[in-house]
Write a structure and sequence with these properties.
This protein is an alpha+beta fold. It has a domain of 120 residues: PH-domain like (Roll). It has five helices and seven strands, in the order ααβββββββααα. Strand 2 and strand 3 form a beta hairpin. Helix 2 packs across helix 3. The protein is elongated. The two termini are 42 Å apart. It comes from Trichomonas vaginalis (strain ATCC PRA-98 / G3). This is PH domain-containing protein.
């Protein structure tokens, strides 16, 4: 393996961070409550699409009946209702406003992990462990493939010129 190849694959955490943050930048389907809380009536939640802005990961675009941008996420919490039927995320913004949303488990895990990373909050959860293992396996598979490819299908070295043949005049070969 060449020196360039050994440095082309990075730490699995590098890929995981890019994956989870880019997933948060997509339009994700959620059910949200503006200024909601743990005791909110989730039957009144509004179907929305949310995503972090590409140019500022701390800004959240919310698209429902109206489209708004909430600026500068300050904090994130994940919780569940008292009856444990609904898991949800609470985002707090610079203007002290909150946005509470629920979604499928993968979207909740992505947002909680991604925003926690952006806010430099320590985070460890099953989702993160699973994804980092997937990226570790991907890197290992790629390295094994590259090693086998080089071994099985590598370009052979050019053999040295034979010393036992007399010099052949190239003009002789060109005449045939």
């Amino acid at each position: 393996m060449s020196m360039q190849d050994s440095f082309s694959l990075k730490d699995p955490n590098f890929y995981f961070q890019r994956y989870v943050i880019s997933s948060c930048m997509q339009d994700n389907d959620v059910h949200g409550l503006r200024n909601g809380g743990k005791s909110s009536n989730w039957k009144k939640a509004i179907p929305s699409k949310i995503g972090l802005q590409e140019n500022n990961w701390k800004n959240l675009d919310i698209k429902d009946a109206i489209s708004i941008t909430k600026k500068n996420i300050q904090d994130i919490e994940i919780d569940e209702t008292d009856d444990k039927k609904v898991r949800f995320i609470t985002l707090r913004f610079e203007d002290k406003d909150t946005y509470v949303f629920t979604a499928n488990q993968e979207v909740l895990d992505q947002f909680y992990t991604g925003i926690s990373l952006i806010l430099n909050k320590p985070v460890e959860n099953d989702y993160m462990a699973q994804k980092i293992k997937e990226f570790t396996d991907m890197i290992t598979s790629r390295l094994k493939f590259k090693r086998n490819l080089d071994k099985d299908f590598g370009i052979p070295q050019i053999p040295p010129e034979p010393t036992c043949f007399p010099d052949i005049d190239p003009k002789v070969l060109a005449q045939n």
